[in-house]
Amino acid sequence: MTGEKALVIRKMREDDIDEVYRIEEDLFPLPWPRRSFVFEVGNTRTTYAVVATEKDVIIGYAIGWFVEDELHIGNIAVRRDRQGAGIGSGLMDDFMREASTREATYITLEVRASNVKAISLYRRYGFKGVAIRRNYYTDSGEDALVMLAELGEEED
Q1: Between 63 and which of 11, 49, 98, 104 could a Cys-Cys bridge form, CB atoms 3.0 to 4.6 Å apart?
Q2: In the chain, which stretches have pLDDT less than 70?
Q3: Among 110, 125, 137, 155, which one carries the catalytic annotation?
């Protein structure tokens, strides 16, 4: 373990938003408005927002919403220079634990149909493609693949 950076995942705070928004703007052609992040951090009823850090530097984040027995993942993002280092998996592990803690029965998300890396990550967590949302992404007209993972289905 010598030389490895310790990944810490914690709840997103208001003072994280500037760095989170820098990552958002860099990664997405149509970034969420900054005010959306401010709202989500303050929405403790349904929002689950976390950041991934190494040595107190934010390198990724994830936002989802718990409604009834569902977790809907809105965004998982990892800084470009840290992609492929397991950060997305760490964020997914955290979401899966929280979904289990809250006794969610399923998790849903939309992903760009062309985002092979993300789709591969989600499949490793048991997600299956269940629908296509045509022309979902307004910046490109690209379709979204709707994915679903059912939880609590394992046999003893």
Answers
A1: 49
A2: 1-4, 153-156
A3: 110
CB 20 within 8 A of CB 76: no
For domain 7-150, give its CATH number from 3.50.50.60, 3.40.630.30, 3.90.1640.10, 3.30.200.20: 3.40.630.30
Distances in whole angstroms, Cα of residue 30 to Cα of each of 27, 58, 85, 133, 153: 9, 21, 25, 17, 36
21 is catalytic: no
Helix boundaries (H) for 67-131: 87-101, 116-124
List the catalytic residue out of 21, 48, 61, 122.
122
| Residue 138: per-residue pLDDT | 85
The pLDDT of residue 39: 94
Predicted TM-score (pTM) of the model is 0.89
User: Is residue 110 flagged as an active site residue?
Assistant: yes
